Amino acid sequence: MSSQIAIKTSLTSQDRRHLKERGISLQTLESQLATFQRGIRFTTLKRPCRPGDGISRLSSLDIPAAIRNFERARAAGRLTKFVPASGGGTRMFKFLETARLQRAFDGSTATKELNQFFSALPKFAFYHDLKNVLSGQGLQLDRLLAGNDYRPVIDALLDSLNYAGLPKGLMAFHSYANITRTPIEEHLIEAADYAKDDGGRARVHFTVSPDHQLAIQQHIENARHGLAIDHITWIVDCSAQKPSTDTVAVTMDNSPFRDSGGNLLFRPAGHGALISNLQELQGDVVFIKNIDNVVPDHLKETSSHFKKVLGGLLVGLQDTLFAFVAQLESGEKSPDCLERITEWANQSLALTIPNGWSARTDSQKAQWLFSRLNRPIRVCGMIPNANHPGGGPFWVEQEDGTISLQIVESSQVDHGSPTQREIFSSSTYFNPVDMACGVRDYQDRPFILDQFTDPNAGFIAQKSFKGRELKAMELPGLWNGGMAKWHSVFVEVPRETFNPVKTVLDLLLPEHQPPERC
After folding, report:
1. What dihedral do alpha carbons 192, 193, 197, 198 form, nearest 10°?
2. Distance in angstroms (rounded) separating the CA atoms of residues 122 and 129
3. Which of 143, 151, 184, 454 has its CB surrounded by the most CB atoms within 10 Å?
């Protein structure tokens, strides 16, 4: 209580005004500062998920039924595609920026990455744009490359075309006969392929950076007309991460960090903040996939097929889940019914029963089952690990002693513990962020999604601001702690469904090149 009083009394009228403008309550500020004080506990891993133990492998019988369920939801207009698209291209061109800073951009000092980039430059979809920009500056790209004169080319790409500052969604990724396409355009094409309803409407939502929102909205509007697919109407909207989801920064001794003007410093809280955007979407069956995980048209069939499978599996699970929840809500609590529901939930949703279950009355069991079953549900594609950095599927111990299926990032794990480090490193599956989410309940009401997060699954990192060290906190990741209390079902999908572009050199991989070049 005394620390809360100290916080309140240390706030200036300007602080209070800024908090109000951001939509951040005093209670939220106090909660964030308390989290810095106590720290964030590590996730307790029990074991990695394996086929038959947390990960399902599809049989030839599963797929036709899933496709039928998917088609039923698609025809009814229940589908929306949700694409986190605020990521910038800075990291894609890190080696080019490094070369420019170190002046290592001629043929004699170039790194392996730099040589690969320039030797394959004509294969990039942005090649002709780059050539035209240089021509406008009185320079010839072919002559610059022949003379190993790389600096003007790097400057034109990163500065004139602004690829160092653009979001990934606005970059030319793929080449076709006479055009190029950005990831945003590829996502629209993909939505038209599998997410359109019987009226030809395909719903897509992009979460974007506020700095680029207008440019992205204009690009989307141009794409809707330029792509010109018959019998398709794209219903597309955008949202930005809200200032109310930002988190306060603190000094190294956990006091509120203030800038040179004496103002509290707030920072974006990572993709976990997008749970608010997902809530406001008011969707039904929502497919989530990152902006840079796209392929050209000739490879879309596999990706779209498994979207349908994941979505169909979700709808099938919802059919049974909703029926059981409605039974429980109606007062049904016979032992046979409760046993049937419990067995299904354990087998289909990996729901573990707490200790002392047999000692509970039927009413207590029914109440517990209703509370635990009436939650959002997601079906997540998982791919065999190919040394991708990032999270994976694990069985995790909860505070009440039960275990649940979770997607866990490296930052959530105590790598100082040999046991936890070994469990994490022994995972053989990777999370590609490819999921179908059910965000409405058995009465078709939108869930209040922030009620199903794990506030303790965030991350505290050391950062700096204008040369001063600070601590920053990210909210629980969208598909980690942000969905920690959802039902999670993990399904193995082919490696071919995951084709991210983390560095510009990934665009040279066969899956991002025209078929004649593969």
Report:
1. 110
2. 11
3. 184
Domain residue limits at 131: 94-160
Residues in CB range of 228: below 8 A, 6 or more apart: none
Task: Check: CB of residue 150 under 8 Å from CB of residue 118.
Answer: yes
Whether residue 402 lies inside any domain: the answer is: no
As given in the structure block, the two tokens for residue 203 are: 């719903």
Please tell me whether residue 408 adopts helix, strand or coil conformation: strand
Scored b (16 or more CB within 10 A) or e, 393-417 reads bbbbeeeeeebbbbbbbebbbeeee
What's residue 319's pLDDT? Answer: 98
Own/partner long-range contacts of 439-445 (Cβ < 8 Å, ≥24 apart):
439/278, 439/279, 439/283, 439/284, 439/286, 439/376, 440/283, 440/284, 441/322, 441/325, 441/374, 442/321, 442/322, 442/323, 442/325, 442/326, 442/329, 442/374, 444/284
**Alpha carbon distance 224, 36 (integer Å):** 45
Strands annotated E in 301-441: 377-384, 392-397, 403-408, 429-430, 434-438
pLDDT attached to residue 503: 94
The verdict on residue 58 lying in a domain is no
Which residue in 345, 385, 383 sits closest to 365, CA to CA?
345
Confidence (pLDDT) at 1: 44
pLDDT at 6: 54
Q: Distance (Å, rounded) from C-alpha 453 to C-alpha 486?
A: 8
Task: Select from 183, 154, 172, 16 the least CA-distant residue to 96.
Answer: 154
Contact residues for 5 (Cβ-Cβ < 8 A; gap 6+): none
- 154 falls within a domain: yes
* C-alpha 392, offset from chain centre: 13
Q: Are 209 and 217 in contact (CB under 8 A)?
A: no
Q: Give phi and psi for 82, each to the nearest 5.
A: -115, 115
Read out DSSP for 357-390? GGGS-HHHHHHHHHHHHSS-EEEEEEEE--S-SS
Which residue shows structure tokens 């939220």? 28
Residue where one domain finishes, among candidates 144, 160, 176: 160
DSSP letter for 352, please.
Answer: P
Within the chain, which residues score under 70 in pLDDT?
1-9, 104-110, 386-389, 517-518
Q: Which residues pair with 384 in a beta bridge?
A: 429
How many structural domains is the chain composed of?
Answer: 2
What Rg value do the Cα atoms of the chain yield, rounded?
25
d(CA 151, CA 159): 12
CB 433 within 8 A of CB 288: yes
- Round to whole Å and give the CA distance between 393 and 409: 9
245 domain residue, yes or no: no
**Residue 435 near residue 378 (C-beta atoms within 8 A):** yes
25 phi, psi to nearest 5 deg:
-80, 160
